[in-house]
Amino acid sequence: MNILIIGDICGRPGRQAAAHYIPLLRQEYQTDLIIANGENSAGGVGITAPVMDELLNAGVDVITSGNHIWDKKEILDFIDKAPRLVRPANYPPGTPGFGYTVLTKQQVKIAVVNLAGRAFMPPIDCPFREADKILTAIAAQADIIIVDFHAETTSEKMALAWYLDGRVSCLVGTHTHIQTADERILPNGTAYITDLGMVGPWDSVLGVDKDLVINKFLTGLPAKFHLADGRNVFCAVIVKIDEATGKATAITRIKRYLN
Amino acid sequence: MNILIIGDICGRPGRQAAAHYIPLLRQEYQTDLIIANGENSAGGVGITAPVMDELLNAGVDVITSGNHIWDKKEILDFIDKAPRLVRPANYPPGTPGFGYTVLTKQQVKIAVVNLAGRAFMPPIDCPFREADKILTAIAAQADIIIVDFHAETTSEKMALAWYLDGRVSCLVGTHTHIQTADERILPNGTAYITDLGMVGPWDSVLGVDKDLVINKFLTGLPAKFHLADGRNVFCAVIVKIDEATGKATAITRIKRYLN
Amino acid sequence: MNILIIGDICGRPGRQAAAHYIPLLRQEYQTDLIIANGENSAGGVGITAPVMDELLNAGVDVITSGNHIWDKKEILDFIDKAPRLVRPANYPPGTPGFGYTVLTKQQVKIAVVNLAGRAFMPPIDCPFREADKILTAIAAQADIIIVDFHAETTSEKMALAWYLDGRVSCLVGTHTHIQTADERILPNGTAYITDLGMVGPWDSVLGVDKDLVINKFLTGLPAKFHLADGRNVFCAVIVKIDEATGKATAITRIKRYLN
Amino acid sequence: MNILIIGDICGRPGRQAAAHYIPLLRQEYQTDLIIANGENSAGGVGITAPVMDELLNAGVDVITSGNHIWDKKEILDFIDKAPRLVRPANYPPGTPGFGYTVLTKQQVKIAVVNLAGRAFMPPIDCPFREADKILTAIAAQADIIIVDFHAETTSEKMALAWYLDGRVSCLVGTHTHIQTADERILPNGTAYITDLGMVGPWDSVLGVDKDLVINKFLTGLPAKFHLADGRNVFCAVIVKIDEATGKATAITRIKRYLN
Ligand SMILES: [Fe+2]
Ligand SMILES: [Fe+2]
Ligand SMILES: [Fe+2]
Ligand SMILES: [Fe+2]
Ligand SMILES: [Fe+2]
Ligand SMILES: [Fe+2]
Ligand SMILES: [Fe+2]
Ligand SMILES: [Fe+2]
């Protein structure tokens, strides 16, 4: 089974690049499932119901997210009714929304789990222990398990991947918006990449107009950010998983551009 | 002119991998200058005089560094006499050591500048303004300027690269120990990569034994870290620079393994 | 000379408490100068021109501030024309506004300097070195020097106070909104308190409605804060300074309530 | 019932000041129970078995702690056998040691609970939810509940106090080493102070030699800290609790000096 996993989609330009490449890659790689991180998909921060629908209509099966998922207030109106949108599972008990979802494709049951890191990020529950809990809960239900670990530091991402090696089919990192070149299959069969990278304006700082960000670093003054113009980058991976064993057999990094 | 720039070298395994690949790459790419980040070169944190000499003897022309440069106390005994070892230039006035160095290769004057970030890092002087100051100081002395920006976040690295685009030949990021896949030439001629990656144990967390790091995340208790065993990764870039203009014309990412 | 220095004034309730106690304390302690921190004086974050005028009309001679000074956008319209409002002097070169001000009372020249900390706060220039620069600049102009050091940690505040002991008449801390009980005269004549405390709603978390803050800690979700209701606290110190020597001779902590 | 609660005891000078004042205050206030924070009691960071015994022999009934409790490695040898020493209860499951203890004095059952904050501190479990769990567990066993909340920010401390108001007899903050002037009885009967302050060298930065700390702020270089010389401060509170209701009726701040 081939799964396309797409990094943080940034606003309208990111959604357009995603809509452009999803059908092409689906055909090129004969993908069976498409996952995308949507925490920045509405205007650069957060997600709205129409934007979620736009991504689902573009072919995304499951939308993962991260710390920015709460930034558009209307999220609280629909997240509890949106089982194909997941938010980090290690937010505290009582947090609206779902931390993971299980769906069936070609009679294979696939769980998609979202977790967030704590190093240099707001305090939440332990992602390592939350992963243990979820794996216990879904062991019987899922043939394949995909984790989007939304975290800042390379060490927390790499550590969780080793911790889950052989227990999940794939762990991808998101949040830094820069694709890493370390995709690999860990010894016990978990496909891994530290960060998928983003989908959005390429001549930018993480999607944002570069002059605004430079000015922020130079002055320290509050600033209103908006996305940059110009051509876009589309960052993702294709993971090949043996559905009989749940082990990954290949991970391919994808990076395309769109004017 | 071809310049080989090598990421954070981790301890003895990293030094061995560097010693193995430096002559091979020098020949393969006909390199004229070799730069390596040595902040972790002695046992995983810091650098000593014998380790510095070992790196220089292996063919490194300039050693850059970062936040860990101070971790071996003996650094203060020799850093002021070590012009080929640079530490972040934006440490405060009075800090021992050199923030940049200028050397001549094939009658071309090359400045190597080290800077450190401030996002999620200890407070120091502004790297953007320090860069401006240094560029003013060395404008007349240098045909080519290479910057190693040792920083945690992708945004601070990308922002400084855009800020210096066209004013330096190349800016490489270090510190996260994971190579990024975004090497490029910016519009005004600066070669860029968000992080070079490291040289050291591959089945590890940033070079360190993975079980120790996992345990640290699980327990929060203090832990003594040591480097991992096993095969090593060697991460670097080759940058091709037109010495007439000081502009980069190509950047090639290098990732090799050594058992 | 007696100087009244008032902690962070929080919104309308804080301004009302300040307006109530300023005339009473001026008479009770025969004060010659009144300083107040206004970073939260407009609705809880930031300051506007009408709010600044309200504080000045209430008898405040100099308004100091801190990290929240930029939170109301209109600040940029008037801060360059507001010499009696100071913002941290160690913001980078080019920052709008004034980092210190010098005024004359009873033929005594008094400098009021604002600085901000860096521990657990956004990266700015070194407050220790900025203090050195300002003291050099104003040595000839000022008989008395008062510093408001707006910082998070007790260690950075205490360290700067020792660093400046004998070089300034008084250093008060602000930002934590909780008054400390450590007011003292340091050995070389500098009056010191780690934090003045705030002026605003007492049954609150730092002025803010407590249920909102508790909920923020419990859920981690974004929240809109507003100030709490009910009685107010008024926190300040009275510092007695010998204008002949510039040394402090007494510091008295003030804490009053207003229904 | 009168309870003496003493702030972070710093090294030998702190232990000497504690040994001096404990008998005096026990008699002066007719105290029934003595609690002290010992996270810095051995040489400034951590605690050893002999130091623990010294504190217990000096009259301390329960030793609370905080983030520094792990700094002397030998702690792991004895913490599981030391029921009168508590460490923050919201460290993750499996952490050595006890998070709370229950003891009986004059037939009154008293629980002493230790919790740690997360704002600007290492990631651990939620202190608010951990408090809920412990209160449920000990509801039947304890007439009086005392909480030492070891945390950096005034907001997290004040928020937890409001959250527990009426459910615990007293919540004191520790960790900043500077006593605050906000001791009070909250509306539902919980005695509160944001920080007890420390017991240790008064002409210092949080107990440490001030020149070392100033130098650390000026240079950013690693530094070995040692405690300061000279007279000591002894910071504590006396809390009067009605054992029939478990409610506090008075809280008195104590600050004494010893040459
Ligand atoms: Fe993102
Ligand atoms: Fe994110
Ligand atoms: Fe490194
Ligand atoms: Fe580093
Ligand atoms: Fe404030
Ligand atoms: Fe503030
Ligand atoms: Fe402490
Ligand atoms: Fe502490």
Automatic annotation (TrEMBL), chains A, B, C, D:
Q: Name one Pfam family in it.
A: YmdB
At the top level of its lineage, which domain of life is listed? Bacteria
Please name the catalytic residues of this protein. H68
| InterPro entries recorded | Metallo-depent_PP-like (IPR029052), YmdB-like (IPR005235)
Keyword Isomerase in annotation: no
Name the coenzymes or cofactors required.
Fe(3+)
The record's GO molecular-function terms, alphabetically, read:
2',3'-cyclic-nucleotide 3'-phosphodiesterase activity; metal ion binding
On whether DNA repair is a keyword of this UniProt record, the answer is: no
Q: Which PANTHER family match?
A: 2',3'-CYCLIC-NUCLEOTIDE 2'-PHOSPHODIESTERASE (PTHR36303)
Return the similarity comment.
Belongs to the YmdB-like family.
Against NCBIfam families, the record matches this protein to: TIGR00282 family metallophosphoesterase
The protein depicted here goes by the name TIGR00282 family metallophosphoesterase
Source organism per UniProt? Dendrosporobacter quercicolus
